[in-house]
């Protein structure tokens, strides 16, 4: 039986650690899949006898499907329980991975990637809800930091593992590696993960789901197309962008006056949650932009192949994995706002050298910067999410985790597109100048992150002062 926060406030129990690591085990499959498959573009084009445009949909369809399922997570959690939803999503993800490996053509592969994305979109926030329910605010930082180890290691290990697989095996093994992880995670989850309480959730708002379920993917698709085309003037970019924004505005208007909305947007009336959500969105470009630029930096300027690039990127994930446990303890002790402010300042310090100096691509100094950036990201993204989850009540947690994930996904998509456009437009000046320009923009985003985390720190400090006065 899991010890709840009320039974042992502030203490990390063995039962809680077991739940935490099982959730992490399941999340590892999703994070690994995303980064491993990304290195297989050329192989899929060749082995499936199709074009680059069609293969691109293997990745785009996954991201869009993931965004489609996120708005439904809150209602499904209230209806069936967070643990049951997490288990069902993990099983669906594992089955979809096996089917992807046996897809006979590009059409079937794209369709099955949609199923994978739908499952992944439910698995992440459902797992976060489970952890929030069993941990409570006093232990949330340490628990979420453990989940963050997977988030940081996935992008570092995935490209290297994908390159090794494609060097020795065929592309179906990019998906087959998920099977043992998914099966083991399911068996452990059946034993250790609490199912959660079945609720009496009201009938879902079908019209509202249609509005947001189409609006979010439309915005993400527009951002992706913007990065590919390099211009917002293309109908492929501005038409889905305008349609997506209009649908999201309509969803907000419809939701505002409803007694039982699909997503409780009233959470943004909580100032702490609102500032944490804004920080999550606007720090996305600073974090995801680096994940887009750095592999290209090694490949274009250094001529590294996929495997070498994966090895060079390990420092980033290793830095995060090393710092996350410490970041979790600091968050529980000092507050997520203060820790995130430290992280944003360190992120800025690790970014500026790429924008102002001609760095040796594979030098020791560059690797030191990657480790610093990895450690800084552990002190930035995880504490902000912890602040958001701790700011809501237990009953609001399903909606809170879903909304933070939506904000993070949209912010990440916009950030990646932004740096793709900046880099493409600067390439005529030469690769070295193009990357310095892109990293200069990344520096600007890092400065914005410092300002936002300082705002979050001030809000938390004011809340503590008010609470102390009332006490």
Automatic annotation (TrEMBL):
<keyword id="KW-1003">Cell membrane</keyword>
<dbReference type="InterPro" id="IPR020846">
    <property type="entry name" value="MFS_dom"/>
</dbReference>
<keyword id="KW-1133">Transmembrane helix</keyword>
<feature type="domain" description="Major facilitator superfamily (MFS) profile">
    <location>
        <begin position="19"/>
        <end position="463"/>
    </location>
</feature>
<feature type="transmembrane region" description="Helical">
    <location>
        <begin position="339"/>
        <end position="357"/>
    </location>
</feature>
<keyword id="KW-0813">Transport</keyword>
<keyword id="KW-0472">Membrane</keyword>
<feature type="transmembrane region" description="Helical">
    <location>
        <begin position="404"/>
        <end position="426"/>
    </location>
</feature>
<protein>
    <submittedName>
        <fullName>DHA2 family efflux MFS transporter permease subunit</fullName>
    </submittedName>
</protein>
<keyword id="KW-0812">Transmembrane</keyword>
<feature type="transmembrane region" description="Helical">
    <location>
        <begin position="306"/>
        <end position="327"/>
    </location>
</feature>
<feature type="transmembrane region" description="Helical">
    <location>
        <begin position="233"/>
        <end position="253"/>
    </location>
</feature>
<feature type="transmembrane region" description="Helical">
    <location>
        <begin position="110"/>
        <end position="131"/>
    </location>
</feature>
<dbReference type="InterPro" id="IPR004638">
    <property type="entry name" value="EmrB-like"/>
</dbReference>
<comment type="similarity">
    <text>Belongs to the major facilitator superfamily. EmrB family.</text>
</comment>
<feature type="transmembrane region" description="Helical">
    <location>
        <begin position="369"/>
        <end position="392"/>
    </location>
</feature>
<dbReference type="InterPro" id="IPR011701">
    <property type="entry name" value="MFS"/>
</dbReference>
<feature type="transmembrane region" description="Helical">
    <location>
        <begin position="53"/>
        <end position="73"/>
    </location>
</feature>
<feature type="transmembrane region" description="Helical">
    <location>
        <begin position="143"/>
        <end position="167"/>
    </location>
</feature>
<feature type="transmembrane region" description="Helical">
    <location>
        <begin position="273"/>
        <end position="294"/>
    </location>
</feature>
<dbReference type="Pfam" id="PF07690">
    <property type="entry name" value="MFS_1"/>
</dbReference>
<feature type="transmembrane region" description="Helical">
    <location>
        <begin position="19"/>
        <end position="41"/>
    </location>
</feature>
<feature type="transmembrane region" description="Helical">
    <location>
        <begin position="206"/>
        <end position="227"/>
    </location>
</feature>
<feature type="transmembrane region" description="Helical">
    <location>
        <begin position="438"/>
        <end position="457"/>
    </location>
</feature>
<feature type="transmembrane region" description="Helical">
    <location>
        <begin position="173"/>
        <end position="194"/>
    </location>
</feature>
<feature type="transmembrane region" description="Helical">
    <location>
        <begin position="85"/>
        <end position="104"/>
    </location>
</feature>
<dbReference type="InterPro" id="IPR036259">
    <property type="entry name" value="MFS_trans_sf"/>
</dbReference>
